[in-house]
Amino acid sequence: MSQRIRSFAVEGLKVEIFSDRKAMREAAGQAVAGRMKNLLKEREKLCMVFAAAPSQNEFLEALSQSPGIDWKRVIAFHLDEYIGLPSTAPQNFGQFLRVRLFEKVQPGEVHYLNGTVQDPEAARRTSMEPVTTACPATILRKHENAILFLDQDSARLIESMS
Questions:
Q1: Mean pLDDT calculated for residue range 97-114
Q2: Cα separation of 51 and 43, whole Å?
Q3: How far is Cα of residue 132 from the mean position of the Cα atoms in its chain?
Q4: Closest Cα partner for 134 from 67, 83, 75, 87?
Q5: Looking at residue 8, what is its pLDDT?
Q6: Which residue has the higher pLDDT, 34 or 136?
Q7: What mean pLDDT do residues 71-98 have?
C-alpha cells in the first residue's frame, strides 16, 4: 500500500518520503491543490509554472482531479521547450501539458513557449507575470512553504550522496 514513510525538516525545508513514486506524486498534487486554494482566497489570480515530463503524470492527474480550485483565475506557463520543435509534435512540452492538464482544468490563461521562434534569446528575455508557484516544487533554495516530496528510492540515493 502506498503511504508516507517518514517526514522531517532540514534547515526549515519539510521533507516527506513515500513508499513509491505514485504515492509521492499524488501527495504532491494534493499539497499543491491545497496551496492553490489558500492562495486564491487571498489573490485575484495565481500565476503558475508547470514542468512537463512523464515523471509528472501522477502529479498532474492528482492536481487535475482536485475539487474546489477556481482554475479560471489561474494563469499557467510551462517551464521549458525544445528549440525548433513545432507545437503539434508529440514531444513538445506545451502539447504534453495541454493534454495532461490544461484541457482538463481549463485555466483562465495559458502561455505557451514557442520553440520555433526566430530569436530564442529574445523570447527568453520577454517578461511575464510574477510567478506565484512553480510545480512541481523542485527546491533550489529555502522557502517558507516549500515541501520536498521523495519516493523511498530517491531518498536512499540522496542519503547515500550526503
A1: 92
A2: 23
A3: 12
A4: 75
A5: 80
A6: 34
A7: 87
CATH code at 4-161: 3.40.50.1360
Domain ranges within the chain, ordered by starting residue:
4-161
Contact 47, 131 (CB under 8 A): yes
Within its chain, how far is the Cα of 86 from the centroid? 23
Q: What is the pLDDT of residue 85?
A: 82
76 strand-pairing partners: 48, 110
Q: Give the integer Cα–Cα distance in Å for 20 and 2.
A: 6
Secondary structure class of 62 (helix, strand, coil): helix
Q: Can you give the length of the chain in residues? A: 162
Give the integer Cα–Cα distance in Å for 134 and 28: 12
For residue 66, pLDDT over 90 is answered with yes
Q: Quick check: 74 and 36 in contact, CB under 8 A? A: yes
For residue 153, how many other CB atoms are within 10 A of its CB? 11
Report pLDDT for 124: 56
- Give the global pTM: 0.73
157 sits in which H/E element: helix 152-161
